[in-house]
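step: validate -> pass
step: tokenize input -> pass
step: predict -> running
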Amino acid sequence: MISLDFTDVHLERNRPRDAVEVPLGVVATFSLVVEHIELFSEGAFSIVELAAQLKYWLDHGDDESDFKYKSAEAAEILLWFKHEPEGWRAGSD
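step: predict -> pass
step: emit ->
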């Protein structure tokens, strides 16, 4: 089982002022846990930005399309889910 865990949710900035600061400014400590093993953990993770990308993927992808989360604040892919014949793989670059 895959679990997305969020703790310590807070505003990183005093008061978001525009449409870019809101998705980037709401952060939490985020952990990706698979079968009780923590594969990925990061503090100050932009959870609204992640939620928006996950929602888009779920609404527009098919049952076998891969998910790649790339934050506006990072150069690399921070989180991905890849479909394989045996099931799903999760990770980060």
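step: describe -> Helices lie at 21-25, 47-60.
step: cleanup -> pass
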